[in-house]
Amino acid sequence: MTEHQGGCLCGGIRYETRAMPTRVTVCHCRFCQKATGSAYMVEPIFNSDDFAVLTGAPETFDLTSTGSGKTVHVHFCAECGTKLWLSFERFADAVGVYAGTFDTPCWFPMDPANSKHIFLGAARDDTVIPPGVPTYDAHATTRDGHPLPATVFETCHRIKKA
To answer: 42: how many CB neighbours lie within 10 A of its CB?
Structure first.
């Protein structure tokens, strides 16, 4: 088993993942920019059975996604405000962890085989996308779940807005 723990700034909420992520999404959408206070979110995705809350009880903020029309549940610490993970109406068996909340935030691999960059249309100017990674201008799937074609850059690609 691959166990990795994380938690909030004040230590009131602790969680554990018990497997490798099924995939890693790097999201550049406005929701993730606002939620992280950064240019993008690194989100390892786990099967919900491989995720457990060890201590504390998070609060939840629900937001309807403008892209899918489905609810995204943001789980956070009411004491210190740290956003810890997401759960999804659209993907009921998945949990997306805010990677920076892991005790060791870079423990999982991010390579072309297991990761993708989404919402490049909202990405910050000068963001550099690594070569070989599937990318999408918005979502990677249609509203009904069908995969969309990816763009894969052969060399590092720098986002440039007109």
So the answer is: 20
